[in-house]
Write the structure tokens for this entry.
Amino acid sequence: MRIAKITATTVTTAALALGVAACGGGEAPAEPSAASTAEASGPAFAGKELTLWRLGDSNPDAQKYTDELVAAFQQETGASVKVEWIPWPQVNDKFTAAAAGGAGPDVTEIGNDQVPLWVSQEALAPVTDIVGSGDQAGIPKNLMGMETIDGETYAVPWGGGTRAVLYRKDWFEELKIEVPKSWDELVAAAKKVQAEKGSDVDGFAFNGGSDANHLLGSLAWTSGGEYAVKEGDKWVGKLTDPAFKAGFEQYTSLVTDGLSSKSRLTQNSSDIRTRFSNGKVGMYLTASWDLATIEEESKGKLKGDKLAFFPLPSKDGGEAQAFLGGNDIAVWGTAKEPEAAKEFVKMATNKDWGVRYATEGGLLPVYPEALAKLAEDPAQAPFAAAFAKAKAFPADPNWTEANETKAVLQNAARQVIEGKATADEALAAANTELEDILNQS
Amino acid sequence: MTNTPTLARGGRHASAPGRGPSRGGRGKGLPVWSIPYVLLIPGLLVIAALLLYPMVQVAIIAFQKVGLPQISGRRPAEWVGTDNFTRIFESQIFWDSLRNTVVFAVIAVTMTLVLGTAVGVLLSKLGKKMSTFLVIGIMCAWAVPPVAQGIIWRWLFDAEAGMINWALNLLPDWLSTLVFGRADWTGEPWLNDAWSVYMVLIITVVWASFPFIAVSVLAGLKGIPSDLYEAARVDGATGWRTFWQITFPLLKPVFAVLTVLSIIWDFKVFSQLYVLMSGPTNREAFNLSMYSYTEAFKAPQKMGTGSAIALVLTVLLLVVTAVYIRQLVKQEEL
């Protein structure tokens, strides 16, 4: 008996302790050994090695750009750069491990909406001096709303991203569907695709995963809604406003009207992209960085004129408001080579490499004259148009918790879709929760 | 079970006469009584380092605010008293998780024990070859690692490509309508709703854990003298009666241990649920382990609240186990 009891207790405690506490943190060196070198001239960093984290799935275009940038940097400074590709869904986990004292990068690409969170975790080093001089002084300051905190800038905008609807142009031509100009036309087009291509095809894919708010946000902003507004030093939730509710109902109707299957309520845009590559999606909201990966995933079957974009239409025609997304590049707080890292960021975001990063990676350049030139290109016009009207999520370090970890609005949508709550009930609960999350210290 | 301590004591006495003279000859060395303790030290040190230290840390962190800056040593941890506990007790997710954890454990433990016992009794009635064949078969299920279990059942219950929906569609329409009230199962999303996720989870866990119970019961049955069963048969007892009058009372100690182990295993299920839901996606279907993981490791990391949840789960489990064992002691079943 005594043995049984001891065994039971030991097994219990052992299992629990191992399960939860295995994360005991090792002490990381607090201060990077800042080898303060003199002004970089010539091969100032010869023999040094930088680690660069590029985000997303590697694809030929991005790979080529990165290779060339790294080669040019090595030629100029003598430092070699090791590149690691981190798929978007893993980004927060990798940052977490690095910020907790694991192996981190020297330089990392970072989504602009992630910057406040990682600054609050003290994971990024300030780069204010870079954006204050040289080419980078020409980047409009309104693009640095998320990056500037208490007067210090922590990341340099690298490329602007905004989303539009990617659709199967070949299907639309085959089924004689016009490019939708209003929401009703989009719904009709999606239904027609499903009727002809099989019921397991999503006419317009519902995104309920980690980046669901890109889709919901577009719909809600277009109908005039807001997530939350800062009044004084407090966030006030606006989810119960009729305008937000209209966009939210449009969002849930994608599933309740059958445009997207009920069995995939948690898919994010990577999951949707994979299904799109396999011919199971007619339309979804994304950006042109997916094109290269789709070509790869579909083994070359889906490319070129089989695919095209159109701006997400609003309910009464016209273009919807898109998310002001974008990728930045930043110096990691515990970089082993902070000086070389800064030099790399400076070079990567100059007019030459910065514009190339955007245009070759399917993003919008952050330099105004390059953006104006891009808007003349018909293929890029939908994005340039959407970019002009783009809006951003609440700029708060806690936004990620509401957006991804607690998935506040995804949860509200699920309850409405499954009939457990009305839109009013679900949004009222979500509003309280959003306020609690954004206002916590 | 009761024999074990006696044996250990016997062993100690036996070693005493042999050791005594040689120790006296050297003039130094350990007193006889201390030898078992000295031998235990290496084991205790390993347990202390790998188990006690992290456990104490969890308990400490539960009363602190710990995020990434604190973990990496850039900032000291901040004491917050019982704030972490207040916060989780105010959260609806906690109460949903608690309900899911407890209801799941009750159902899964019951089903595992019932099914395991039934299979164990069946095994004992089979011939040697058939019994060996079955034991090997079911032990394969038991040997499947938790993540693989989750993947197997997630595929089977997949909405579009899953075997389950395919098989349900093969049923004659009238039968399907009669039993389930519907005939078409195409695209049924089993892994959406909390209740259906838990149904699949229960199947997964019971499937993988009943073989252990079955084999343990079989081993226990081998120790029951067969003349008891012969006597029962002569008296004309039914199989049901034989089980409750002979098998069950004699195997009570075995059942007691198996129940405790099952409770412990099923309270802390994590991997299978993680795989079935593809990560912490649907918070209505969290259990306490999943909630703790999400709080502690998903951005922004709150190791404090995560530890607080873990502590609650630990205490809950210790209480359940203690109450159960106390009950057994009272009934003198062990």
